[in-house]
Specification:
about 0% strand
Length: about 100
């Protein structure tokens, strides 16, 4: 049995949150909504709109079609610079760029 589109989007967002080390609060701030709104969308109480999907995809630097394709494709599309380092705890904010980094 395949996932519905809504389930794929929720799973993809969860996968991106995990892969990037971000929290729902971090995503909410980036999208300009409350953490409670992200939580409702992730629990299925509210749906992710197409505009939300575009904003999430833009935030993570992936194509919206990768997000809609599901968790595996979304996580694979996540740029390496957005991934948390394995073995290190998740951070609520990405580290500031160090002068001289390319």
């Amino acid at each position: 049995m395949s996932m519905s589109l809504e389930e794929r989007v929720r799973s993809a967002v969860a996968s991106l949150l995990h892969a990037s080390g971000e929290s729902q609060t971090d995503l909410a701030i980036a999208l300009g909504v409350s953490q409670a709104q992200v939580s409702r969308r992730q629990s299925g109480t509210a749906a992710w709109s197409l505009a939300d999907c575009e904003a999430v995809a833009a935030h993570y630097g992936i194509d919206v079609l990768e997000l809609l394709a599901g968790p595996t494709r979304a996580a694979e599309a996540l740029p390496g610079t957005r991934r948390r380092t394995p073995g290190r705890p998740a951070m609520s904010r990405p580290p500031a760029a160090v002068e001289g980094d390319a």
